[in-house]
Amino acid sequence: MVDPVETPVEDSADARPVVLVVEDEFSLRWPASEYLRDSGYRVVEASSVDEALMVFASHTRVDVVFSDINLKGDRNGIALSKWLHEHHPDVPMLMTSGQEPAAHPVSTGAKRLFISKPYVLADVDQLISSVLPRNG
Amino acid sequence: MDNHQAKTIMMLEPDVLIRMVIAEHLRDCGYRVIEGVAAQDAWAVLESGRRIEIVLADVKLAGEEDGFSLARRIRQTHSDIDVILTSGIAGAAQESHDLCEEGPIKKPYEARDVEARIRIMLERRRASRNWSRN
């Protein structure tokens, strides 16, 4: 019998980078998440900023965040970007919106990228892979 | 995408941490899992023409339609889809464990391990003072 306290909460043998997808529209979150899984990532899906913060609160490993900017709820993707900058400054973020980037001041730091909606999923994959820290 | 033999499970669960752990567990067992939070997400997938073999849904869902209503309607319109309703963490863990037993990849998980993993994450969320703040 395994002591539940010793149950591993992360599969440390899993080398796949973890992408946290934050998108409130199911019709966009589903294909993006499925595409990224098929591309070799582990994907955690959040439908709001609150859910994204719960994922971090649960100590789940996240290597990169792919988030919509205009999210329903109290907080949008910009708020998530600020929170991330404060609490997990090493985690890069790819932001997306149907509006022009000029309307959303995206940090010019290397850890923040932007892609316009509608996006091509192969481009999302390429941008995510470009901000991931190189292993070895 | 449909060149895989793996069965597709539409999982509906409004709590992100329960959804994350159960969905990952089912993927480890070889299933393709589509994650949703509301009944309308399942209908969107069905309307897209994507084949789903199993719907695993909590009785409580986001949105207006609950799991009971969704199960009733799917059984009427898609009698080939196996609908499994769950309630609570232990129920979800047990159902996902049973699905894994029938799944293409055998994993040495116990239902109580899956449940314990979820409870650890929920406890961390409770303990965290940061997640609800700006």
Task: List the keywords.
heterodimer, A: 136 residues, alpha/beta, five-stranded parallel beta sheet, 18% strand, globular, B: 134 residues, Rossmann fold, 5 helices, 4 strands
Which CATH first-tier class of chain A would you pick? Alpha Beta
Q: Can you give the mean pLDDT of chain B?
A: 92
Give the low-pLDDT segments of chain B: none
Strand order of the largest sheet of chain A: 2-1-3-4-5
Look at the helices and sheets of chain B and give the structural class: alpha/beta
Strands side by side in the biggest sheet of chain B: 2-1-3-4
Principal-axes geometry of chain A comes out as globular
End-to-end separation of chain A: 38 Å
> Mean pLDDT of chain A, rounded to whole units?
87
- pLDDT under 50 segments of chain A (min length 5)? 1-9
Tally of discrete structural domains of chain B: 1
Largest sheet of chain A: 5 strands, parallel
The counted number of beta strands of chain A is 5
Give the total of domains of chain A.
1
Please bin the fraction of helical residues of chain A. 25-40%
CATH topology grouping of chain A: Rossmann fold
Instruction: Give the DSSP E fraction of chain B (strand runs of 2 or more residues).
Output: 5-15%
* N-to-C CA distance of chain B: 39 Å
CATH architecture of chain A: 3-Layer(aba) Sandwich
Descriptive report:
The complex is a heterodimer of chains A (136) and B (134). Chain A contains four helices and five strands. Chain A is globular and about 40 Å long. Chain A is an alpha/beta fold and 136 residues long. Chain A has one domain (15-131): Response regulator (Rossmann fold), CATH 3.40.50. Mean pLDDT of chain A is 87; it is low at 1-9. Chain A has a five-stranded parallel beta sheet with strand order 2-1-3-4-5. Chain B has 134 residues and is an alpha/beta fold. Chain B has a single domain, classed as Rossmann fold (3-Layer(aba) Sandwich). Chain B has helices spanning 16-28, 39-48, 67-77, 88-102, 111-127, and strands at 8-12, 32-36, 54-58, 82-86. Chain B has a four-stranded parallel beta sheet, with helices on both faces. The A-B interface holds A 2, 4-5, 7-9, 11, 26-27, 30, 33-34, 37-38, 42, 44-47, 50-51, 53-60, 75, 79, 82-83, 87 and B 1, 16-17, 19-20, 24, 27-28, 32, 34-38, 40-41, 44-45, 110, 112-113, 115-117, 119-122, 124-125, 128, 130-132, 134.
